[in-house]
């Protein structure tokens, strides 16, 4: 299923790039459009549980770059994979780790620093994101 769909509502909230998109009552912090995470960068205090929601009809993943998260941080990826290579292999093998429209994924940021992540099928199109966690 590779059709495009755009949300008729919510675009203005994303355009502001404000902290805590979920604070507006949407129930999530980072949305997934057809080819981007919105907001692309999210700043949060350590201890925050970040929630991603696929706000699009295309399947997406949330996959940490293993070498671009703090050394002491736990790896994260939709599908519960233990590392980036496994997440990529499983997605290419059988779509492992996909989030479909309306589904969510959450991760608690427990170590200060920068966490960079991407969507496996849309990485080449620039679907990357970042969390900046501070104490």
TrEMBL record:
A GO cellular component annotation in the UniProt record: membrane
Organism name: Halapricum desulfuricans
Domain Blue (type 1) copper intervals: 30-132
Keyword Lyase: no
GO MF annotations in UniProt: copper ion binding; electron transfer activity
Annotated compartments: Membrane
Protein name from the UniProt record: Plastocyanin
Source organism superkingdom: Archaea
InterPro entries associated with the record: BlueCu_1, BlueCu_1_BS, Cupredoxin
SUPFAM superfamilies with a match to the protein in the record: Cupredoxins
Principal cellular location given in the protein's record: membrane
């Amino acid at each position: 299923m590779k059709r495009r769909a755009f949300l008729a509502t919510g675009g203005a909230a994303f355009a502001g790039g404000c902290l805590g998109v979920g604070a507006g009552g949407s129930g999530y912090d980072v949305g997934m459009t057809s080819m981007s995470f919105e907001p692309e960068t999210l700043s949060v205090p350590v201890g925050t549980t970040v929630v991603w929601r696929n706000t699009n009809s295309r399947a997406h993943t949330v996959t940490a770059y293993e070498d671009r998260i703090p050394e002491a941080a736990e790896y994260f990826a939709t599908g519960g994979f233990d590392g980036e290579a496994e997440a990529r292999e499983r997605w290419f093998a059988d779509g492992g780790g996909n989030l479909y429209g309306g589904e969510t994924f959450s991760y608690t940021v427990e170590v200060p620093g920068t966490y960079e992540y991407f969507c496996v099928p849309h990485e080449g199109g620039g679907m990357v994101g970042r969390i900046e966690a501070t104490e």
